[in-house]
Amino acid sequence: MTIVAQGHAIAKWFGKGANRTQVLHDVDFHIRAGECLAIIGESGSGKSTLTRILLGLERADSGTVQFMGMPVEGRKSAGYRALRQSSGLVLQHPFASLDPTWTVERSVAEPLMIRKIVAGGSLRGVERIKDTATASVHKALQSVGLDPRIFATRYPDQLSGGQAQRVAIARAIVDEPQLIVADEPMSAIDVAARIQIIDAFAAMRQSQPDAALVVVSHDLGVVQHLADRIMVMQNGRVVEEGASDQVLMSPQCEYTKTLIAAASM
Ligand SMILES: Nc1ncnc2c1ncn2[C@@H]1O[C@H](COP(=O)(O)OP(=O)(O)OP(=O)(O)O)[C@@H](O)[C@H]1O
Are 10 and 24 in contact (CB under 8 A)? Predict the structure, then answer.
Protein backbone atom coordinates (compact mmCIF):
# COMPACT_ATOMS: atom_id res chain seq x y z
CA MET A 1 0.00 0.00 0.00
CA THR A 2 1.18 3.52 -0.82
CA ILE A 3 2.70 5.47 2.05
CA VAL A 4 0.76 8.74 2.18
CA ALA A 5 2.81 10.52 4.84
CA GLN A 6 5.91 9.71 6.82
CA GLY A 7 8.30 11.31 9.22
CA HIS A 8 11.78 10.33 10.31
CA ALA A 9 13.75 11.29 13.42
CA ILE A 10 11.48 14.23 14.24
CA ALA A 11 12.54 16.45 17.12
CA LYS A 12 10.76 19.55 18.38
CA TRP A 13 11.55 22.07 21.10
CA PHE A 14 9.32 24.82 22.45
CA GLY A 15 10.26 27.88 24.47
CA LYS A 16 13.41 29.95 24.78
CA GLY A 17 16.47 30.07 27.04
CA ALA A 18 15.98 28.31 30.35
CA ASN A 19 12.38 27.47 29.36
CA ARG A 20 13.41 25.65 26.22
CA THR A 21 11.93 22.13 26.40
CA GLN A 22 12.11 19.25 24.00
CA VAL A 23 8.59 17.90 23.35
CA LEU A 24 9.33 15.39 20.55
CA HIS A 25 12.35 13.06 20.56
CA ASP A 26 13.44 11.16 17.48
CA VAL A 27 9.90 10.27 16.36
CA ASP A 28 9.37 8.06 13.31
CA PHE A 29 5.91 7.54 11.86
CA HIS A 30 4.17 6.54 8.65
CA ILE A 31 0.60 6.21 7.44
CA ARG A 32 -0.53 4.21 4.43
CA ALA A 33 -3.41 4.80 2.03
CA GLY A 34 -6.64 3.34 3.41
CA GLU A 35 -5.25 2.97 6.92
CA CYS A 36 -6.47 4.44 10.20
CA LEU A 37 -3.67 5.18 12.65
CA ALA A 38 -4.57 6.15 16.21
CA ILE A 39 -2.10 8.12 18.31
CA ILE A 40 -2.68 7.70 22.02
CA GLY A 41 -0.87 8.85 25.13
CA GLU A 42 -1.45 11.00 28.16
CA SER A 43 -1.94 14.76 28.00
CA GLY A 44 1.22 16.60 26.97
CA SER A 45 2.88 13.56 25.37
CA GLY A 46 3.23 15.40 22.04
CA LYS A 47 0.36 13.92 20.00
CA SER A 48 -1.04 17.24 18.71
CA THR A 49 2.41 18.66 18.05
CA LEU A 50 3.25 15.61 15.95
CA THR A 51 0.02 15.89 13.91
CA ARG A 52 0.61 19.62 13.41
CA ILE A 53 4.08 18.84 12.06
CA LEU A 54 2.58 16.11 9.89
CA LEU A 55 0.14 18.69 8.44
CA GLY A 56 2.85 21.29 7.90
CA LEU A 57 1.24 23.62 10.47
CA GLU A 58 4.31 23.46 12.70
CA ARG A 59 7.96 22.92 11.75
CA ALA A 60 10.13 20.20 13.20
CA ASP A 61 13.51 21.40 14.52
CA SER A 62 15.15 18.35 13.01
CA GLY A 63 14.10 15.30 11.07
CA THR A 64 12.14 14.97 7.84
CA VAL A 65 8.45 14.86 6.89
CA GLN A 66 7.19 13.69 3.52
CA PHE A 67 3.75 13.74 1.93
CA MET A 68 3.29 11.43 -1.06
CA GLY A 69 7.06 11.10 -1.27
CA MET A 70 7.75 14.86 -1.37
CA PRO A 71 9.38 16.84 1.47
CA VAL A 72 6.91 19.03 3.36
CA GLU A 73 9.53 21.38 4.85
CA GLY A 74 9.09 25.00 3.75
CA ARG A 75 5.84 26.61 2.72
CA LYS A 76 7.02 26.97 -0.85
CA SER A 77 7.81 23.28 -1.23
CA ALA A 78 5.75 21.20 -3.64
CA GLY A 79 5.15 18.72 -0.82
CA TYR A 80 3.69 21.43 1.42
CA ARG A 81 1.36 22.70 -1.31
CA ALA A 82 0.21 19.17 -2.17
CA LEU A 83 -0.38 18.50 1.52
CA ARG A 84 -2.43 21.69 2.01
CA GLN A 85 -4.60 20.82 -0.98
CA SER A 86 -5.01 17.21 -0.05
CA SER A 87 -5.56 17.07 3.67
CA GLY A 88 -8.52 17.65 5.96
CA LEU A 89 -8.49 18.47 9.66
CA VAL A 90 -11.16 17.78 12.30
CA LEU A 91 -10.62 19.46 15.65
CA GLN A 92 -11.93 18.93 19.14
CA HIS A 93 -14.46 21.79 19.31
CA PRO A 94 -16.73 21.72 16.24
CA PHE A 95 -18.41 25.07 16.90
CA ALA A 96 -15.03 26.82 17.03
CA SER A 97 -14.28 25.57 13.52
CA LEU A 98 -17.64 26.61 11.99
CA ASP A 99 -18.44 30.23 11.09
CA PRO A 100 -21.67 31.04 13.00
CA THR A 101 -22.90 33.26 10.14
CA TRP A 102 -22.53 30.58 7.46
CA THR A 103 -25.02 27.85 6.59
CA VAL A 104 -23.89 24.25 6.81
CA GLU A 105 -23.82 24.08 3.02
CA ARG A 106 -21.48 27.06 2.75
CA SER A 107 -19.14 25.78 5.47
CA VAL A 108 -18.87 22.34 3.89
CA ALA A 109 -18.36 23.87 0.42
CA GLU A 110 -15.53 26.15 1.61
CA PRO A 111 -12.60 23.77 0.83
CA LEU A 112 -13.94 23.28 -2.71
CA MET A 113 -14.20 27.03 -3.25
CA ILE A 114 -10.71 27.66 -1.83
CA ARG A 115 -9.24 24.97 -4.02
CA LYS A 116 -10.90 26.55 -7.08
CA ILE A 117 -9.63 30.03 -6.21
CA VAL A 118 -6.11 28.74 -5.47
CA ALA A 119 -6.17 26.99 -8.85
CA GLY A 120 -6.78 30.41 -10.45
CA GLY A 121 -10.60 30.39 -10.76
CA SER A 122 -12.28 33.79 -11.04
CA LEU A 123 -15.17 34.66 -8.75
CA ARG A 124 -17.53 34.17 -11.66
CA GLY A 125 -15.94 30.78 -12.17
CA VAL A 126 -16.56 30.09 -8.52
CA GLU A 127 -20.23 30.96 -9.00
CA ARG A 128 -20.34 28.52 -11.89
CA ILE A 129 -18.90 25.65 -9.90
CA LYS A 130 -21.57 26.08 -7.23
CA ASP A 131 -23.79 23.41 -8.76
CA THR A 132 -20.96 20.87 -8.77
CA ALA A 133 -20.05 21.94 -5.26
CA THR A 134 -23.64 21.48 -4.09
CA ALA A 135 -23.65 17.89 -5.33
CA SER A 136 -20.34 17.17 -3.51
CA VAL A 137 -21.53 18.91 -0.33
CA HIS A 138 -24.75 16.90 -0.27
CA LYS A 139 -22.82 13.67 -0.84
CA ALA A 140 -20.45 14.51 2.05
CA LEU A 141 -23.36 15.37 4.37
CA GLN A 142 -25.10 12.13 3.46
CA SER A 143 -21.97 10.12 4.13
CA VAL A 144 -21.81 11.47 7.71
CA GLY A 145 -25.48 10.66 8.27
CA LEU A 146 -26.91 14.18 7.90
CA ASP A 147 -29.83 14.60 5.49
CA PRO A 148 -28.91 17.61 3.30
CA ARG A 149 -32.59 18.49 2.84
CA ILE A 150 -32.75 19.13 6.57
CA PHE A 151 -29.25 20.32 7.43
CA ALA A 152 -27.85 22.18 4.39
CA THR A 153 -29.63 25.45 5.24
CA ARG A 154 -29.10 25.31 9.01
CA TYR A 155 -26.70 27.56 10.93
CA PRO A 156 -24.31 26.25 13.62
CA ASP A 157 -26.59 27.44 16.46
CA GLN A 158 -29.27 25.11 15.07
CA LEU A 159 -27.04 22.04 15.48
CA SER A 160 -26.25 19.76 18.41
CA GLY A 161 -22.57 19.18 19.25
CA GLY A 162 -22.61 15.78 17.53
CA GLN A 163 -24.28 17.20 14.41
CA ALA A 164 -21.78 20.09 14.31
CA GLN A 165 -18.88 17.64 14.53
CA ARG A 166 -20.37 15.61 11.67
CA VAL A 167 -20.58 18.84 9.63
CA ALA A 168 -16.89 19.43 10.43
CA ILE A 169 -16.11 15.89 9.22
CA ALA A 170 -18.15 16.47 6.04
CA ARG A 171 -16.11 19.61 5.40
CA ALA A 172 -12.84 17.73 5.97
CA ILE A 173 -13.77 15.01 3.47
CA VAL A 174 -15.71 17.00 0.84
CA ASP A 175 -12.84 17.29 -1.62
CA GLU A 176 -11.77 13.71 -1.00
CA PRO A 177 -8.35 14.39 0.57
CA GLN A 178 -5.67 11.73 0.74
CA LEU A 179 -5.04 12.47 4.42
CA ILE A 180 -7.49 13.34 7.20
CA VAL A 181 -6.33 14.18 10.71
CA ALA A 182 -8.83 14.20 13.57
CA ASP A 183 -7.45 15.57 16.85
CA GLU A 184 -9.63 14.45 19.79
CA PRO A 185 -12.78 14.51 17.64
CA MET A 186 -15.01 13.05 20.38
CA SER A 187 -13.82 14.72 23.53
CA ALA A 188 -16.21 17.69 23.32
CA ILE A 189 -19.14 15.50 22.23
CA ASP A 190 -21.59 13.93 24.68
CA VAL A 191 -21.32 10.19 25.06
CA ALA A 192 -24.67 9.46 23.35
CA ALA A 193 -23.57 11.26 20.17
CA ARG A 194 -20.11 9.66 19.99
CA ILE A 195 -21.38 6.58 18.21
CA GLN A 196 -22.65 8.85 15.40
CA ILE A 197 -19.17 10.30 15.00
CA ILE A 198 -17.63 6.82 14.93
CA ASP A 199 -20.23 5.84 12.31
CA ALA A 200 -19.41 9.00 10.32
CA PHE A 201 -15.70 8.08 10.20
CA ALA A 202 -16.55 4.46 9.35
CA ALA A 203 -18.81 5.64 6.49
CA MET A 204 -16.09 8.01 5.30
CA ARG A 205 -13.60 5.14 5.17
CA GLN A 206 -16.04 3.11 3.11
CA SER A 207 -16.74 5.89 0.65
CA GLN A 208 -13.07 6.96 0.40
CA PRO A 209 -11.21 3.66 0.87
CA ASP A 210 -7.82 5.11 -0.15
CA ALA A 211 -7.87 7.99 2.32
CA ALA A 212 -5.46 7.78 5.26
CA LEU A 213 -6.97 8.72 8.63
CA VAL A 214 -4.97 9.75 11.70
CA VAL A 215 -7.01 9.95 14.90
CA VAL A 216 -5.62 11.41 18.12
CA SER A 217 -7.77 10.22 21.01
CA HIS A 218 -7.73 9.59 24.73
CA ASP A 219 -10.75 7.35 24.29
CA LEU A 220 -9.60 3.77 23.80
CA GLY A 221 -13.17 2.71 22.96
CA VAL A 222 -13.07 5.05 19.97
CA VAL A 223 -9.60 3.83 19.06
CA GLN A 224 -10.71 0.21 19.23
CA HIS A 225 -13.60 0.92 16.84
CA LEU A 226 -11.63 2.92 14.29
CA ALA A 227 -7.94 2.16 14.25
CA ASP A 228 -6.03 -0.46 12.27
CA ARG A 229 -2.78 0.50 13.99
CA ILE A 230 -1.94 2.29 17.22
CA MET A 231 1.06 4.41 18.12
CA VAL A 232 1.58 5.07 21.83
CA MET A 233 3.40 8.24 22.90
CA GLN A 234 4.94 9.08 26.25
CA ASN A 235 6.88 12.27 26.98
CA GLY A 236 7.45 12.97 23.29
CA ARG A 237 8.64 9.49 22.36
CA VAL A 238 6.95 6.58 20.61
CA VAL A 239 7.01 3.81 23.20
CA GLU A 240 4.87 1.21 21.43
CA GLU A 241 3.38 0.69 18.01
CA GLY A 242 1.47 -2.15 16.37
CA ALA A 243 -1.79 -3.51 15.03
CA SER A 244 -4.74 -2.32 17.16
CA ASP A 245 -5.71 -5.77 18.45
CA GLN A 246 -2.13 -6.56 19.34
CA VAL A 247 -1.57 -3.29 21.24
CA LEU A 248 -4.94 -3.36 23.02
CA MET A 249 -5.05 -7.10 23.80
CA SER A 250 -1.40 -7.74 24.59
CA PRO A 251 0.44 -4.49 25.21
CA GLN A 252 4.19 -4.89 25.61
CA CYS A 253 5.06 -1.63 27.29
CA GLU A 254 4.24 -0.90 30.95
CA TYR A 255 3.00 2.57 30.02
CA THR A 256 0.50 1.13 27.48
CA LYS A 257 -0.67 -1.39 30.07
CA THR A 258 -1.31 1.48 32.49
CA LEU A 259 -3.26 3.47 29.87
CA ILE A 260 -5.42 0.43 29.06
CA ALA A 261 -5.98 -0.38 32.72
CA ALA A 262 -6.99 3.24 33.42
CA ALA A 263 -9.43 3.21 30.49
CA SER A 264 -11.16 0.06 31.66
CA MET A 265 -11.70 1.32 35.23
N1 LIG B 1 3.08 26.51 21.08
C2 LIG B 1 3.61 25.93 22.17
N3 LIG B 1 4.49 26.61 22.94
C4 LIG B 1 5.06 26.02 24.03
N5 LIG B 1 4.81 24.76 24.41
C6 LIG B 1 3.93 24.05 23.70
C7 LIG B 1 3.28 24.61 22.55
N8 LIG B 1 2.45 23.66 22.02
C9 LIG B 1 2.57 22.58 22.82
N10 LIG B 1 3.45 22.81 23.81
C11 LIG B 1 3.89 21.85 24.84
O12 LIG B 1 4.33 20.68 24.16
C13 LIG B 1 3.99 19.52 24.90
C14 LIG B 1 3.19 18.59 24.00
O15 LIG B 1 1.93 19.22 23.72
P16 LIG B 1 0.85 18.54 22.79
O17 LIG B 1 -0.31 19.46 22.69
O18 LIG B 1 1.50 18.09 21.55
O19 LIG B 1 0.46 17.26 23.67
P20 LIG B 1 -0.78 16.30 23.53
O21 LIG B 1 -0.26 14.93 23.74
O22 LIG B 1 -1.49 16.55 22.25
O23 LIG B 1 -1.67 16.75 24.76
P24 LIG B 1 -3.27 16.78 24.92
O25 LIG B 1 -3.71 15.34 24.91
O26 LIG B 1 -3.48 17.45 26.26
O27 LIG B 1 -3.82 17.58 23.78
C28 LIG B 1 3.21 20.00 26.12
O29 LIG B 1 4.08 20.04 27.22
C30 LIG B 1 2.76 21.39 25.74
O31 LIG B 1 2.63 22.21 26.88
Answer: yes
- pLDDT score for 79: 75
**Residue 93: strand pairing partners:** none
Supply the pTM of this predicted model: 0.90
| Confidence grade of residue 250 (pLDDT, cut at 50, 70, 90) | very high
Output the pLDDT for position 182.
Answer: 93
CA distances from 148 to 51, 73, 90, 154, 199 (A): 31, 39, 20, 10, 17
Residue 51 Cα to ligand 1 middle (Å):
11
CATH number for 175: 3.40.50.300
**Alpha carbon nearest to ligand 1 atom 2, residue:** 14
To test the pocket of ligand 1, the residue of 21, 23, 50 to mutate (highest count of ligand atoms within 8 Å of its CB) is 23
ipTM: 0.96
Task: Look up the domain containing 8 and give its range.
Answer: 3-263
